[in-house]
Amino acid sequence: MDAQISGGTGVGTTANVRSNLPSVRSNLQGPSSGNGRRMTSKKTRSKKGKRRKRRRSKKTKTNKTPPYLPPELKLVNPTQYRFEHLATQLKWRLQEGRGEAVYQIGVEDNGLLVGLSEGDMRASLKTLRRMAEKVGADITLLREREVDYDSDRNCRKISEVLVRKVPDDQQFLDLRVAVLGNVDSGKSTLLGVLTQGELDNGRGRARLNLFRHLHEIQTGRTSSISFEILGFNSKGEVVNYSDSRTAEEICESSSKMITFIDLAGHHKYLKTTIFGLTSYCPDFAMLVVSANTGIAGTTREHLGLAMALKVPIFIVVSKVDLCAKGTVERTVRQLEHVLKLPGCNKVPMVVASPDDAVTAAQQFAQSSSITPIFTLSSVSGESLALLKVFFNILPPLSNSKEQEELMQQLTEFQVDEIYTVPDVGTVVGGTLYSGVCREGERLVVGPTDEGRFLRLKVGSIHRNRSACRVLRAGQAATLALGNFDRSLLRKGMVMVSPKMNPTICWQFEAAIVLLFHAKTFRRGFQVTVHVGNVRQTATVECLHGKVSNTNYKLGNTVLRRAQEQPLARIYWPYTTPPRALLLKYTLPQYGPRSVGHNFVQCSDRNVII
């Protein structure tokens, strides 16, 4: 209270406040107390004020030494009560960080790097380790630096420590990373090296385990969406297929999971790439650029898609073993130039050391303008360790409060894949958009072509090929539906709670933002609309409004900035009867026949909403 009144130290503030109290009392007593009494009180106050000033001056003289650290930054031999308070604080920080927290020891609250002696640092780390054991977590020393203010004083250190909770009941931290980039840039090879733990032989051996079809193996080009996982245990060590035989073992040993969504890079499969970005809701996007070819093919297009969907993106320059150092530097400069253009407004950050990787991971999650750039090789293994350090420290974008709000909403599960498994029946795969889904829960699935919703029951739930009983918002899984007729299901449907009472539409309105296209957007224009997990062909019925002529460049691509965005009314003409789609919980609803807000047109008649 005192410090808030005057903004000074606690002792000085208390003296200032108390010195004003007698004068206030004398004014409230009125003239009946007499002038002599008032004079006496003034003399007394002046003497007391002089004594307080002398005491304050003595304390000021004795406090000329450097200020001590706050107790929570030093952590040396805390009392039992203080230790319980610190453990409770650590538990709260882990909950806010969804299982992760970073402690900076030797740093004041205002950011001043004071440092600790070697003995105090050892004692502080020992206390932090005891705190972590109490809440069921492990600690990992990220980096340690020396701080020396005076030449005659011993060198002091500051440390940065990662605290990660040991998971229970499949509740590990899961981050989804979409892998983008031009064809032959080395996306699948890089994922194979990261997840298999073996370097490539230069002829694509590492990517063979990722391909799903024979023609992908023959051509070396990804045409479908595949998933790979990379785990980290509570101590920050990599857990992949080099140590574990199955995905179940990786999940059991991991406290943090990185799920890679390998997308197609060829222009022919652009619709599949867009579907992967809109349907699986990636937390981050990794743009892979070949060092020998630079920005070519669909690289700009994929960069524009990630920015339009507001997915944080970082860049990996691969195949540095094939090029001279000057070629790699030229590719990096080209990327920096594109990222700094008005269409991007990004701040590139080249990662060249473990300290850079730690800083990049922390800044990347806090600021959407930071774009880390890695230069590595899947054959020689150059700088692969930096990328692993980055993934290990990379925090989630949402905190525990936002996650809790999503879990309190009604259940909505997006159907992305449909399977028929022997002795199990119909199985659907997808992502839980909101709410909580449990075994045996009764939901409704739809809409059908007639706009109806059908009742069903969830039999069992599997995450990363491991059985679990509860599925929470933001998690991807497969649900067994038993004997439910598969012919009644299709991609783009949703499984929702019966209490939701969902609204369907055959027509909607949206504002147009034109990214890049060679043809004219007009009435009767036929497009493919992507709304979440919905991918449907549609026709523009009419346009209202005008588009301004404010243009700017992103590399060699001209972008148009819309000042007055026109409205487009769109409907589905190619189904009999017209196919009903559920758009209510993806877009704001403006009326019984119009749903929509942002309408982004890309090349090849693809539309993202």
UniProtKB/TrEMBL annotation:
InterPro entries, per the entry: EF-Tu_GTPase (IPR050055), EFTu-like_2 (IPR004161), GTPBP1-like (IPR035531), P-loop_NTPase (IPR027417), T_Tr_GTP-bd_dom (IPR000795), Transl_B-barrel_sf (IPR009000), Transl_elong_EF1A/Init_IF2_C (IPR009001)
Spans through the membrane: none
PROSITE patterns per the UniProt record, alphabetical: G_TR_2
Gene Ontology molecular function: GTP binding; GTPase activity; translation elongation factor activity
Region of interest: Disordered: 1-73
The entry's keywords: GTP-binding, Nucleotide-binding
Coiled-coil regions, chain positions: none
UniProt domain Tr-type G: residue ranges: 172-400
Biased composition regions of type Polar residues, renumbered to the chain: 12-35
Highest taxon, organism lineage: Eukaryota
Ranges of biased composition (kind: Basic residues): 39-62
Keyword Nucleotide-binding among UniProt keywords: yes
PANTHER family xref list: ELONGATION FACTOR TU-RELATED, GTP-BINDING PROTEIN 2
Family: Belongs to the TRAFAC class translation factor GTPase superfamily. Classic translation factor GTPase family. EF-Tu/EF-1A subfamily.
The name this protein goes by in its record: Tr-type G domain-containing protein
Source organism (scientific name): Oncorhynchus mykiss
Gene: LOC110486054
